[in-house]
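Design job #97: recover the sequence.
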């Protein structure tokens, strides 16, 4: 497309200043779109890396792969970068591209209402913004999920969720309990085991763990990357190849990668836990890959320490002095930590989002969360969702996914800029056909093999992409325009129409 043919400059509201919000701000700059408003609920950018500051927080995707393709970083300290380092990276990128100055901090979106090819976005500060497009960059890991356990509020000691870590609480020598053994807990537990007097790990379901070492990069190695950026490209390509051709192919049903992954996880458990009784407790009863593959080379070592007690009896309730299990035992605690994850299908909610005919997003998704290509929501024209359902999340880089989705949505916006339409939407039928296409591929995946995980929606259907990464990239390369509904509005649209209170 000839850039000289683009005449209109849309007004765009970006909701959220995490990884995807920063990406969008940069890509809109490159596209020459200047009327951009970024709304961020917190006092600084960073999304999940701002929220999560728990002990041992790190990304479980290799750092050189978990970077913007246009901003490689030669200075990552480890294969799997710690959270503070990732947050600093996003902050640095935002400053370099002038994104930070565009963000309205401490301003959450209260409502987003559609009318005749325009969205009115109202914020917690009472400001209203009129926009041609809304991009929801709200992420999937920012609404903490708290367990429904009787008496949780009665606990007398310190209690917090891992996403709301209280760094003022002294844990050294204390009796600490942690509920959960997922990805977050697997990172927290080895660190707690070093300092706690006793650590009680309350496990509902054990995890399969892949023992990839988090090696530190030497200064000499980092200097070689600075001197030769092509080495970073090669490193990124190697990591990406491994994730695509081993983990992704394994969980989407290819037999050889699935067998190799299964052998690696089971061998790790057998070699890492010599005590047969403990090993039995840590052995999942589901297929490797059914839940997200947890990556750690130190978790089993922590679980075998003398001050660590694995509790597999079901929790009956929380009492002032600790946790009571079904066997009648009270596990006395000074601190209780909830490593119970997030609500991944909340997406942009609790925003009061109203689309065509005043239909709310809660009404549209009452029975089922339905989107087309993960980004378009039927009945909500000119409004897009990043990292929505059926994005190929798994153990791949969400940055790579976001870049693909961003390029796809920009093509939809380009049609508006050329004046071909003022409104673009997808029908319910189109979205249902896409959902059926997804379901046809799910039967062979590990996610549909019978376990319970955050990969499943309220109906128990996996919300991931069941095919290969390469297939997803190919299908997202160009919009299938016949799947979209477009129209021109009768009244002329005033460009750059922004209202502030």
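Job complete. Output follows.
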């Amino acid at each position: 497309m000839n850039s000289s043919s683009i005449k209109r400059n849309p007004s765009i509201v970006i909701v959220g200043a995490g990884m995807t919000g920063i990406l969008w701000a940069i890509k809109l700059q490159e596209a020459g779109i200047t009327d951009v408003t970024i709304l961020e609920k917190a006092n600084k950018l960073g999304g999940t890396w701002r929220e999560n500051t728990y002990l041992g927080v790190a990304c479980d995707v290799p750092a050189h792969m978990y970077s913007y393709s246009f901003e490689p970083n030669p200075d990552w300290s480890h294969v799997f970068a710690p959270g503070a380092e990732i947050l600093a990276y996003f902050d640095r990128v935002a400053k370099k591209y002038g994104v930070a100055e565009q963000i309205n901090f401490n301003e959450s979106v209260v409502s987003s209402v559609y009318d005749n090819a325009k969205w009115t976005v109202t914020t917690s500060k009472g400001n209203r913004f009129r926009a041609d497009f809304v991009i929801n960059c709200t992420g999937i890991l920012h609404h903490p999920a708290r367990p429904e356990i009787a008496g949780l509020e009665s606990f007398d000691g310190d209690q917090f969720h891992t996403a709301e870590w209280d760094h003022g609480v002294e844990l050294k020598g204390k009796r600490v309990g942690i509920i959960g053994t997922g990805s977050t807990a697997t990172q927290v537990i080895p660190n707690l085991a070093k300092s706690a007097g006793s650590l009680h790990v309350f496990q509902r379901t054990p995890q399969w763990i892949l023992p990839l070492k988090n090696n530190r990069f030497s200064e000499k190695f980092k200097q070689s990357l600075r001197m030769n950026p092509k080495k970073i490209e090669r490193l990124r390509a190697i990591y990406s190849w491994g994730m695509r051709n081993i983990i992704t192919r394994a969980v989407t049903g290819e037999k050889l990668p699935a067998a190799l992954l299964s052998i690696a996880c089971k061998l790790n458990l057998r070699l890492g836990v010599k005590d047969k009784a403990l090993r039995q407790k840590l052995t999942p009863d589901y297929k490797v890959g059914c839940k997200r593959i947890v990556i750690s080379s130190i978790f089993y070592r922590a679980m075998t320490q003398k001050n660590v007690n694995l509790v597999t009896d079901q929790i009956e309730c929380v009492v002032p002095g600790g946790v009571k299990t079904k066997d009648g035992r009270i596990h006395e605690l000074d601190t209780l930590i909830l490593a119970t994850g997030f609500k991944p299908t909340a997406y942009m909610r609790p925003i009061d989002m109203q689309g065509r005919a005043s239909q709310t997003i809660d009404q549209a998704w009452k029975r089922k969360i339905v989107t087309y290509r993960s980004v378009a929501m039927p009945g909500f024209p000119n409004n897009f969702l990043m990292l929505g359902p059926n994005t190929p999340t798994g153990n791949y880089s969400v940055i790579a996914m976001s870049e693909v989705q961003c390029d796809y949505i920009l093509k939809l916006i380009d049609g508006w800029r050329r004046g071909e339409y003022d409104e673009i939407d997808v029908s319910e039928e189109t979205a249902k056909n896409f959902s059926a296409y997804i379901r046809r591929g799910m039967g062979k995946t590990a996610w549909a093999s019978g376990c319970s995980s955050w990969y499943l929606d309220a109906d128990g259907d996996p919300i991931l992409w069941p095919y290969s990464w390469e297939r997803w990239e190919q299908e997202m390369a160009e919009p299938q325009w016949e799947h979209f509904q477009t129209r021109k509005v009768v009244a002329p649209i005033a460009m750059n129409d922004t209202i502030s209170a």
